[in-house]
Amino acid sequence: MVVTVASGKGGTGKTLVATGLADVLSGEAGSNVQLVDCDVEEPNAHLFLRPQLHRSEEVTHPVPQVDLTQCTFCGRCAQVCEFHAIAVLSGKVMVFTEMCHGCGSCARQCPEGAITEVPELLGHLEFGRAGAIAFAHGRLEVGQALATPVIRQLKARALPRAASTAMSILDAPPGNACSVVETLRGSDYAILVTEPTPFGLHDLKLAVELARDALGLPVGVIINRDGMGDAGVESFCAAAGVPVLTRLPFDRRVARAYSEGQLWTRVLPEYRSQMLEVARAVRSLTEATS
Amino acid sequence: MRVVVTAQGTDLDSPTSPIFGRCPAFVFVDPETMEFEAVANASVAAGGGAGIQAAQWVVDKGAQAVLSHNVGPNAFAVLSQAGVAVYRIEPAGTVRQAVEAYVAGRLQAISGANVASHTGMSGMGRRGGGR
Ligand code: SF4
Ligand code: SF4
Fold first, then answer.
1. Of the bound ligands, which one is closest to the alpha carbon of residue A66?
2. Which protein residue has the closest C-alpha to ligand 1 atom 8?
3. Would you state the pLDDT for residue A117?
4. Using one digit for the tens of pLDDT, what is the confidence trace for A203-241?
5. In the prediction, which pLDDT does B115 show?
6. Which residues of A touch B43 (CB under 8 A)?
7. Model confidence band, residue B131 (pLDDT cutoffs 50, 70, 90)
């Protein structure tokens, strides 16, 4: 089964939950777990799991290249590009490859056949293992803005394993943008990590709208740094019928382990049973809804 | 000679618009006669690349100078490649005042984009150009 760990914004403990879950599940006998870090703009799960990476792969997309000796500067390519990635001036064609979605329309529609498509590097994928955990992540090239194709290819390569794993955990990018949608799509369950503060509540509402209401996924909430803030998140969850999977207390030792790049469920084994409970709850909630 | 002013309305006394790609209207003005033609901006609803689309259109309409407050890097790249000068309107006022300030030489030519692209552009040098 595929479980995505998401949160409305960064810094709420998304990676903490994802890595902690992967770690405790990998400790179960015979358990086959996978962690896929889909935050391709700033992957960080590897800092805690320290996987051995043994394979990498490039993600490219086709962008137009114009042969100016054949081009008549008719402007057709600029007109058909729905992403406005091309401008045609007299004697020049400008291609803004960071706006280009690689759809190929311009090349197909050019009456002179002046456009060929050449691959442009969007990012890299890396695959490896951290003990019993199968690990994969992607990294967007500096200056590239298109995270979704990198995430799509990462999932396409990594998730065929999911059929044989006890759980494949996707660490989503922060926010509510297309890259989060791309990560959540096709998941069996979404764990939404939040803080019990008005900001946390605001972001949680957006995340519930996206994962449950727009994508139709079963969702559950983990309240991180419980004990600070107020009761707003609890009452929202109760009213919206969203289960609270667990509450992780505000614990300086967890924060310290995290800031030192330590796997918190190793340093603080007293949390292991709590995270295993979460995994069990997610499994039974998924079975209940499927 | 025609200059184009980014505007919030369609006549000479409309306030100027602070944005380029998604400004509500473009007012093309002949600075000598103050004859003008105002056109609503078709790029307002563009998903992405509104600045590029608007710049292409302004170039196609034969403007020799753009008077605006903020022009993003992609739009600026298109305009400057096409040889269209970009001037910053300051202070904000009406279209007429902007053109008068331009004629009087009081507007400063912009030599680079003055707002960041929301797509995180990393410089035309590496990725621009047709081939
Ligand atoms: S459609 Fe082809 S010929 Fe026309 S401007 Fe574009 S590249 Fe040139
Ligand atoms: S491939 Fe598609 S998105 Fe890219 S420039 Fe051509 S038409 Fe535009």
1. 1
2. A71
3. 95
4. 999 999 999 999 999 999 999 999 888 999 999 999 999
5. 62
6. 84
7. very low
Instruction: Let me know how many helices (H) and strands (E) chain A has, helices first.
Output: 11, 11
Ligand 2, CB within 6 Å, residue ranges: A 64, 80-81, 83, 85-86, 100-106
CA distance A41 to A183: 13
User: Checking phi first, is residue A216 left (phi over 0); if not, alpha (psi -120 to 50) or beta?
Assistant: left
Which of A65, A94, A145 is nearest residue B81 as measured by Cβ atoms?
A: A94
CA A59 – CA B125 distance, rounded (Å): 22
Q: Tell me if B87 sits within 8 A of B65, measured CB to CB.
A: yes
Contacting residues for B119 by C-beta, under 8 A, at least 6 apart = A98, A99, A145, B48, B74
A94 and B50 in contact by Cβ < 8 A? Answer: no
- For the sheet with B3-7, list strands across it: B36-40, B25-29, B3-7, B65-68, B85-88, B108-109
**Best CA proximity match to A140, nearest among A229, A217, A72, A41:** A41
Exposure string for A150-172, b = 16+ CB within 10 A, e = fewer: bbbbbbebbbeebeebebbbbbb
pTM: predicted TM-score of the whole model, two decimal places: 0.76
Bridge partner list, A6: A192
pLDDT grade, residue B121 (50/70/90)?
A: very low
Q: What are phi and psi of A79, to 5 degrees?
A: -70, -40
Q: Which atom of ligand 2 is nearest to the CA of A77?
A: 7
Judged by CB atoms closer than 8 Å, whether chains meet at B46 and A78 is answered as no
pLDDT of residue B125: 32
Tokens of A52: 């051995």
A95 touches chain B (CB under 8 A): yes
More confident residue, A289 or A278: A278
Please, are residues A173 and A147 in contact by the beta-carbon 8 Å criterion? yes
ipTM above 0.85? no
